[in-house]
Protein backbone atom coordinates (compact mmCIF):
# COMPACT_ATOMS: atom_id res chain seq x y z
CA UNK A 1 0.00 0.00 0.00
CA UNK A 2 2.24 2.79 -1.16
CA UNK A 3 0.28 5.82 -2.16
CA UNK A 4 -2.36 6.45 0.45
CA UNK A 5 -0.48 8.82 2.72
CA UNK A 6 -0.97 12.14 0.94
CA UNK A 7 -4.67 11.44 0.59
CA UNK A 8 -4.77 10.47 4.25
CA UNK A 9 -3.00 13.69 5.22
CA UNK A 10 -5.53 15.73 3.26
CA UNK A 11 -8.28 14.02 5.17
CA UNK A 12 -6.67 14.73 8.53
CA UNK A 13 -6.07 18.38 7.70
CA UNK A 14 -9.58 18.97 6.49
CA UNK A 15 -11.01 17.67 9.74
CA UNK A 16 -13.90 16.20 7.81
CA UNK A 17 -12.85 12.63 7.28
CA UNK A 18 -16.36 11.56 6.37
CA UNK A 19 -16.24 13.61 3.20
CA UNK A 20 -13.51 11.43 1.73
CA UNK A 21 -14.23 7.76 1.87
CA UNK A 22 -11.25 5.59 1.08
CA UNK A 23 -13.19 2.75 -0.33
CA UNK A 24 -11.80 2.37 -3.84
CA UNK A 25 -8.98 -0.12 -4.21
CA UNK A 26 -7.08 -0.04 -7.49
CA UNK A 27 -3.69 -1.14 -8.83
CA UNK A 28 -1.21 1.45 -10.05
CA UNK A 29 1.81 0.06 -11.88
CA UNK A 30 1.16 -3.28 -10.24
CA UNK A 31 0.91 -1.92 -6.69
CA UNK A 32 -2.25 -1.58 -4.58
CA UNK A 33 -3.52 1.95 -4.03
CA UNK A 34 -6.51 3.19 -2.08
CA UNK A 35 -8.38 6.17 -3.45
CA UNK A 36 -11.32 8.33 -2.46
CA UNK A 37 -14.51 7.53 -4.29
CA UNK A 38 -14.95 9.25 -7.62
CA UNK A 39 -11.26 10.07 -7.95
CA UNK A 40 -10.23 10.83 -11.50
CA UNK A 41 -7.12 9.69 -13.31
CA UNK A 42 -5.96 13.32 -13.37
CA UNK A 43 -6.34 13.49 -9.56
CA UNK A 44 -4.27 10.35 -9.18
CA UNK A 45 -1.49 11.85 -11.35
CA UNK A 46 -1.59 15.04 -9.32
CA UNK A 47 -1.42 13.04 -6.11
CA UNK A 48 1.64 11.23 -7.47
CA UNK A 49 3.12 14.58 -8.53
CA UNK A 50 3.24 13.43 -12.13
CA UNK A 51 0.94 16.05 -13.60
CA UNK A 52 2.90 18.14 -16.04
CA UNK A 53 5.54 15.44 -16.51
CA UNK A 54 5.69 13.46 -19.73
CA UNK A 55 3.74 10.31 -19.01
CA UNK A 56 1.04 8.25 -20.65
CA UNK A 57 -1.74 6.31 -18.97
CA UNK A 58 -3.71 3.17 -19.47
CA UNK A 59 -6.68 1.88 -17.51
CA UNK A 60 -7.41 -1.82 -17.86
CA UNK A 61 -5.11 -2.07 -20.88
CA UNK A 62 -6.91 0.76 -22.71
CA UNK A 63 -5.05 3.98 -23.45
CA UNK A 64 -6.49 7.06 -21.76
CA UNK A 65 -5.11 10.10 -23.60
CA UNK A 66 -4.03 13.13 -21.63
CA UNK A 67 -7.09 15.05 -22.83
CA UNK A 68 -9.41 12.51 -21.18
CA UNK A 69 -7.62 12.11 -17.84
CA UNK A 70 -9.73 14.81 -16.16
CA UNK A 71 -12.97 13.06 -17.01
CA UNK A 72 -11.86 9.50 -16.40
CA UNK A 73 -13.15 8.30 -13.02
CA UNK A 74 -11.41 5.34 -11.48
CA UNK A 75 -13.46 2.35 -10.39
CA UNK A 76 -12.71 -0.40 -7.88
CA UNK A 77 -10.16 -2.95 -9.14
CA UNK A 78 -9.07 -0.78 -12.05
CA UNK A 79 -5.58 -1.54 -13.23
CA UNK A 80 -3.76 1.71 -14.01
CA UNK A 81 -0.45 1.88 -15.85
CA UNK A 82 1.54 5.11 -15.84
CA UNK A 83 4.51 5.01 -18.20
CA UNK A 84 7.27 7.29 -19.39
CA UNK A 85 10.20 7.17 -21.79
CA UNK A 86 13.48 5.63 -20.66
CA UNK A 87 16.73 4.73 -22.37
CA UNK A 88 16.38 1.77 -24.72
CA UNK A 89 17.63 0.25 -27.93
CA UNK B 1 50.84 7.99 -62.55
CA UNK B 2 47.74 7.72 -60.39
CA UNK B 3 44.51 8.47 -62.23
CA UNK B 4 41.39 9.32 -60.25
CA UNK B 5 38.58 6.93 -61.17
CA UNK B 6 35.44 8.45 -62.62
CA UNK B 7 32.79 7.79 -60.00
CA UNK B 8 29.08 8.58 -60.34
CA UNK B 9 28.95 9.39 -56.62
CA UNK B 10 31.88 11.82 -56.65
CA UNK B 11 30.67 15.18 -55.46
CA UNK B 12 32.14 18.63 -55.83
CA UNK B 13 35.62 19.14 -54.43
CA UNK B 14 35.67 19.29 -50.65
CA UNK B 15 32.52 17.26 -50.04
CA UNK B 16 32.49 13.66 -48.91
CA UNK B 17 31.10 11.28 -51.53
CA UNK B 18 28.59 8.62 -50.61
CA UNK B 19 26.75 10.75 -48.09
CA UNK B 20 23.42 10.85 -49.90
CA UNK B 21 20.39 11.01 -47.64
CA UNK B 22 18.31 8.15 -46.30
CA UNK B 23 14.60 8.26 -47.14
CA UNK B 24 12.47 6.36 -44.67
CA UNK B 25 8.81 6.56 -43.62
CA UNK B 26 8.31 9.81 -45.51
CA UNK B 27 11.30 11.46 -43.87
CA UNK B 28 14.82 12.25 -45.01
CA UNK B 29 17.97 11.92 -42.89
CA UNK B 30 21.60 12.72 -43.51
CA UNK B 31 22.79 10.06 -41.09
CA UNK B 32 22.15 6.37 -41.73
CA UNK B 33 23.08 5.42 -38.19
CA UNK B 34 20.24 4.92 -35.70
CA UNK B 35 21.37 4.59 -32.09
CA UNK B 36 19.74 3.51 -28.87
CA UNK B 37 19.73 5.42 -25.59
CA UNK B 38 19.93 2.45 -23.21
CA UNK B 39 22.64 1.06 -20.95
CA UNK B 40 24.80 4.20 -20.63
CA UNK B 41 26.70 4.74 -17.38
CA UNK B 42 25.27 8.25 -17.20
CA UNK B 43 22.84 10.50 -19.03
CA UNK B 44 25.69 12.91 -19.75
CA UNK B 45 27.74 10.20 -21.44
CA UNK B 46 24.70 9.18 -23.45
CA UNK B 47 24.18 12.73 -24.63
CA UNK B 48 27.81 13.09 -25.71
CA UNK B 49 27.81 9.73 -27.44
CA UNK B 50 24.62 10.49 -29.36
CA UNK B 51 26.23 13.70 -30.51
CA UNK B 52 29.47 11.98 -31.60
CA UNK B 53 27.60 9.25 -33.48
CA UNK B 54 26.04 11.82 -35.79
CA UNK B 55 22.72 9.96 -35.51
CA UNK B 56 19.50 11.82 -36.14
CA UNK B 57 17.18 8.99 -35.12
CA UNK B 58 17.43 7.60 -31.60
CA UNK B 59 15.43 4.83 -29.97
CA UNK B 60 13.81 4.91 -26.55
CA UNK B 61 11.78 2.47 -24.46
CA UNK B 62 8.40 2.84 -22.72
CA UNK B 63 8.45 1.79 -19.07
CA UNK B 64 6.48 2.21 -15.87
CA UNK B 65 7.01 5.54 -14.14
CA UNK B 66 8.88 5.12 -10.87
CA UNK B 67 6.30 6.44 -8.44
CA UNK B 68 7.48 8.73 -5.66
CA UNK B 69 10.98 9.02 -7.06
CA UNK B 70 11.29 12.73 -7.50
CA UNK B 71 15.09 12.57 -7.69
CA UNK B 72 14.88 10.43 -10.84
CA UNK B 73 15.97 12.37 -13.89
CA UNK B 74 13.92 12.16 -17.02
CA UNK B 75 15.58 10.90 -20.18
CA UNK B 76 13.92 13.70 -22.11
CA UNK B 77 15.86 16.30 -20.11
CA UNK B 78 18.99 15.05 -21.87
CA UNK B 79 17.66 14.87 -25.41
CA UNK B 80 17.32 17.76 -27.81
CA UNK B 81 13.82 17.15 -29.11
CA UNK B 82 14.34 19.53 -32.01
CA UNK B 83 17.47 17.74 -33.18
CA UNK B 84 16.55 14.08 -32.84
CA UNK B 85 13.68 12.05 -34.18
CA UNK B 86 12.71 9.78 -31.32
CA UNK B 87 11.78 6.25 -32.26
CA UNK B 88 9.93 4.57 -29.40
CA UNK B 89 10.34 0.80 -29.25
CA UNK B 90 8.18 -2.03 -28.00
CA UNK B 91 11.10 -3.85 -26.39
CA UNK B 92 10.07 -6.41 -23.82
CA UNK B 93 6.80 -7.32 -25.56
CA UNK B 94 6.14 -10.99 -26.23
CA UNK B 95 2.76 -10.69 -27.95
CA UNK B 96 1.26 -8.58 -30.70
CA UNK B 97 -1.36 -7.29 -28.25
CA UNK B 98 1.24 -6.02 -25.77
CA UNK B 99 3.36 -4.49 -28.54
CA UNK B 100 0.30 -2.61 -29.84
CA UNK B 101 -0.46 -1.30 -26.33
CA UNK B 102 3.12 -0.12 -25.83
CA UNK B 103 3.25 1.46 -29.30
CA UNK B 104 0.13 3.47 -28.50
CA UNK B 105 1.54 4.58 -25.14
CA UNK B 106 4.75 5.64 -26.87
CA UNK B 107 2.79 7.65 -29.42
CA UNK B 108 0.79 9.31 -26.65
CA UNK B 109 4.01 10.22 -24.82
CA UNK B 110 5.76 11.60 -27.85
CA UNK B 111 2.73 13.51 -29.07
CA UNK B 112 2.91 15.44 -25.77
CA UNK B 113 6.44 16.53 -26.68
CA UNK B 114 5.64 17.45 -30.28
CA UNK B 115 8.52 15.28 -31.50
CA UNK B 116 8.41 14.17 -35.10
CA UNK B 117 8.77 10.50 -34.13
CA UNK B 118 5.29 10.37 -32.58
CA UNK B 119 3.80 8.30 -35.38
CA UNK B 120 6.81 5.99 -35.57
CA UNK B 121 7.40 2.77 -33.76
CA UNK B 122 10.31 0.39 -33.66
CA UNK B 123 8.27 -2.77 -33.42
CA UNK B 124 9.69 -5.65 -31.43
CA UNK B 125 7.56 -8.72 -30.80
CA UNK B 126 9.87 -11.16 -29.10
CA UNK B 127 9.61 -14.91 -29.03
CA UNK B 128 12.05 -15.86 -26.31
CA UNK B 129 13.62 -14.02 -23.39
CA UNK B 130 17.02 -15.70 -23.54
CA UNK B 131 17.74 -15.05 -27.21
CA UNK B 132 15.41 -12.05 -27.70
CA UNK B 133 14.77 -13.48 -31.15
CA UNK B 134 11.66 -12.05 -32.78
CA UNK B 135 8.34 -13.85 -33.17
CA UNK B 136 7.66 -13.48 -36.90
CA UNK B 137 3.93 -14.32 -36.70
CA UNK B 138 3.38 -11.82 -33.88
CA UNK B 139 5.44 -9.22 -35.74
CA UNK B 140 3.33 -9.57 -38.88
CA UNK B 141 0.10 -9.37 -36.86
CA UNK B 142 1.21 -6.30 -34.89
CA UNK B 143 2.53 -4.58 -38.03
CA UNK B 144 -0.83 -4.99 -39.74
CA UNK B 145 -2.76 -3.57 -36.77
CA UNK B 146 -0.40 -0.67 -36.16
CA UNK B 147 -0.35 0.35 -39.82
CA UNK B 148 -4.17 0.39 -39.74
CA UNK B 149 -3.90 2.64 -36.70
CA UNK B 150 -1.74 5.15 -38.59
CA UNK B 151 1.72 4.13 -37.39
CA UNK B 152 4.89 4.10 -39.46
CA UNK B 153 6.24 0.72 -38.45
CA UNK B 154 9.96 -0.02 -38.48
CA UNK B 155 9.96 -3.71 -37.68
CA UNK B 156 12.77 -5.61 -36.02
CA UNK B 157 12.93 -9.14 -37.36
CA UNK B 158 15.33 -12.04 -37.78
CA UNK B 159 17.48 -12.43 -40.90
CA UNK B 160 14.90 -14.80 -42.43
CA UNK B 161 14.21 -13.39 -45.93
CA UNK B 162 10.68 -14.79 -46.16
CA UNK B 163 9.68 -13.43 -42.75
CA UNK B 164 11.07 -10.09 -43.91
CA UNK B 165 8.88 -10.20 -47.02
CA UNK B 166 5.76 -11.00 -44.99
CA UNK B 167 6.43 -8.05 -42.69
CA UNK B 168 6.87 -5.72 -45.65
CA UNK B 169 3.60 -7.02 -47.11
CA UNK B 170 1.91 -6.28 -43.78
CA UNK B 171 2.79 -2.63 -44.37
CA UNK B 172 6.06 -1.99 -42.53
CA UNK B 173 7.76 1.27 -43.57
CA UNK B 174 11.08 -0.49 -43.04
CA UNK B 175 12.10 -4.04 -42.26
CA UNK B 176 15.04 -4.29 -39.88
CA UNK B 177 16.68 -7.72 -39.91
CA UNK B 178 19.02 -8.56 -37.05
CA UNK B 179 22.69 -9.24 -37.72
CA UNK B 180 22.73 -11.42 -34.59
CA UNK B 181 20.83 -11.45 -31.27
CA UNK B 182 20.25 -8.11 -29.53
CA UNK B 183 23.22 -7.03 -27.43
CA UNK B 184 25.23 -10.13 -28.39
CA UNK B 185 27.99 -8.26 -30.21
CA UNK B 186 28.40 -11.07 -32.73
CA UNK B 187 28.04 -8.78 -35.74
CA UNK B 188 26.47 -9.97 -38.98
CA UNK B 189 26.44 -13.74 -38.53
CA UNK B 190 24.82 -14.65 -41.83
CA UNK B 191 25.80 -12.23 -44.57
CA UNK B 192 24.07 -14.35 -47.19
CA UNK B 193 20.72 -14.05 -45.42
CA UNK B 194 21.05 -10.29 -45.01
CA UNK B 195 21.90 -10.11 -48.70
CA UNK B 196 18.82 -12.17 -49.55
CA UNK B 197 16.64 -10.00 -47.31
CA UNK B 198 17.91 -6.95 -49.19
CA UNK B 199 17.40 -8.57 -52.59
CA UNK B 200 13.86 -9.74 -51.88
CA UNK B 201 12.72 -6.60 -50.06
CA UNK B 202 14.07 -4.34 -52.79
CA UNK B 203 12.84 -6.41 -55.73
CA UNK B 204 10.89 -3.97 -57.90
CA UNK B 205 11.16 -1.44 -55.05
CA UNK B 206 14.84 -0.46 -54.88
CA UNK B 207 14.29 2.49 -52.57
CA UNK B 208 12.59 0.38 -49.86
CA UNK B 209 14.69 1.05 -46.74
CA UNK B 210 16.27 -1.89 -44.95
CA UNK B 211 18.10 -1.27 -41.68
CA UNK B 212 20.32 -3.88 -40.07
CA UNK B 213 19.26 -3.83 -36.44
CA UNK B 214 20.97 -5.56 -33.53
CA UNK B 215 24.06 -7.63 -32.93
CA UNK B 216 26.72 -5.02 -33.69
CA UNK B 217 29.81 -5.45 -31.50
CA UNK B 218 32.43 -3.32 -33.21
CA UNK B 219 32.71 -0.71 -35.93
CA UNK B 220 33.69 -3.29 -38.54
CA UNK B 221 30.26 -4.94 -38.11
CA UNK B 222 28.62 -1.70 -39.20
CA UNK B 223 30.85 -1.56 -42.26
CA UNK B 224 29.97 -5.15 -43.16
CA UNK B 225 26.22 -4.46 -42.98
CA UNK B 226 26.56 -1.33 -45.09
CA UNK B 227 28.85 -3.05 -47.60
CA UNK B 228 26.24 -5.73 -48.20
CA UNK B 229 23.88 -2.91 -49.17
CA UNK B 230 21.87 -2.10 -46.06
CA UNK B 231 20.40 1.40 -46.03
CA UNK B 232 21.38 1.95 -42.42
CA UNK B 233 22.32 0.33 -39.13
CA UNK B 234 20.67 0.51 -35.72
CA UNK B 235 22.77 -0.24 -32.65
CA UNK B 236 22.95 0.50 -28.94
CA UNK B 237 25.05 -1.76 -26.74
CA UNK B 238 28.17 -1.62 -28.91
CA UNK B 239 28.53 2.07 -28.08
CA UNK B 240 27.00 2.18 -24.60
CA UNK B 241 29.07 -0.70 -23.25
CA UNK B 242 32.33 -0.01 -25.09
CA UNK B 243 35.25 0.79 -22.78
CA UNK B 244 35.15 4.28 -24.22
CA UNK B 245 31.63 4.88 -25.54
CA UNK B 246 32.43 8.31 -26.90
CA UNK B 247 35.36 6.99 -28.96
CA UNK B 248 33.22 4.10 -30.19
CA UNK B 249 30.47 6.50 -31.25
CA UNK B 250 32.99 8.26 -33.49
CA UNK B 251 34.18 4.88 -34.81
CA UNK B 252 30.62 3.85 -35.68
CA UNK B 253 30.06 7.06 -37.63
CA UNK B 254 33.23 6.49 -39.67
CA UNK B 255 32.53 2.78 -40.13
CA UNK B 256 29.08 3.48 -41.47
CA UNK B 257 30.41 5.91 -44.04
CA UNK B 258 33.25 3.57 -44.98
CA UNK B 259 30.81 0.70 -45.51
CA UNK B 260 28.44 2.87 -47.50
CA UNK B 261 31.21 4.18 -49.73
CA UNK B 262 32.55 0.67 -50.22
CA UNK B 263 29.09 -0.53 -51.25
CA UNK B 264 28.63 2.34 -53.69
CA UNK B 265 32.15 1.95 -55.05
CA UNK B 266 31.54 -1.74 -55.79
CA UNK B 267 33.86 -4.37 -54.39
CA UNK B 268 36.04 -6.63 -56.53
CA UNK B 269 34.89 -10.20 -56.99
CA UNK B 270 36.53 -12.73 -54.70
CA UNK B 271 38.86 -15.19 -56.41
CA UNK B 272 40.65 -18.31 -55.28
CA UNK B 273 44.10 -17.43 -56.65
CA UNK B 274 46.24 -14.36 -56.36
CA UNK B 275 46.31 -11.55 -58.88
CA UNK B 276 49.61 -9.65 -58.79
CA UNK B 277 49.31 -5.93 -58.27
CA UNK B 278 52.78 -5.27 -59.74
CA UNK B 279 53.36 -6.07 -63.41
CA UNK B 280 55.13 -9.29 -64.41
CA UNK B 281 56.59 -7.55 -67.41
CA UNK B 282 60.09 -6.30 -66.73
CA UNK B 283 60.79 -8.44 -63.66
CA UNK B 284 64.51 -9.20 -63.36
CA UNK B 285 64.05 -12.10 -60.93
CA UNK B 286 63.86 -15.83 -61.64
CA UNK B 287 60.20 -16.91 -61.58
CA UNK B 288 59.78 -20.58 -60.50
CA UNK B 289 58.30 -22.74 -63.24
CA UNK B 290 59.11 -20.30 -66.04
Overview features:
heterodimer, A: 89 residues, Ubiquitin-like (UB roll), 5 strands, disordered N terminus, B: 290 residues, alpha/beta, TIM Barrel, three-stranded parallel β-sheet, globular
Describe, in plain words, how this protein is organized in 3D:
The complex is a heterodimer of chains A (89) and B (290). Chain A is of the alpha+beta class. Chain A has a single domain, classed as Beta-grasp domain (Ubiquitin-like (UB roll), Roll). Chain A is built from 2 helices and 5 strands; from the N terminus they run H-E-E-H-E-E-E. Chain A has helices spanning 5-14, 41-47, and strands at 24-28, 31-35, 56-59, 62-64, 79-87. In chain A, strand 1 and strand 2 form a beta hairpin. The longest helix of chain A has 10 residues, at 5-14. Chain A is globular and about 45 Å long. The termini of chain A are far apart. Chain B has 290 residues and is an alpha/beta fold. Chain B has one domain: TIM Barrel (Alpha-Beta Barrel), CATH 3.20.20.70. Chain B contains 8 helices and 10 strands. Chain B has a 5-stranded parallel beta sheet. In chain B, helix 1 packs parallel to helix 8, helix 4 runs parallel beside helix 5 (191-202) and helix 6 (219-228) packs parallel to helix 8 (245-265). The longest helix of chain B is centred in the last third of the chain and has 21 residues, at 245-265. Chain B is globular. The chains are: A alpha+beta (89), B alpha/beta (290). Chains A and B meet through strand 5 of A and strand 4 and helix 2 of B.
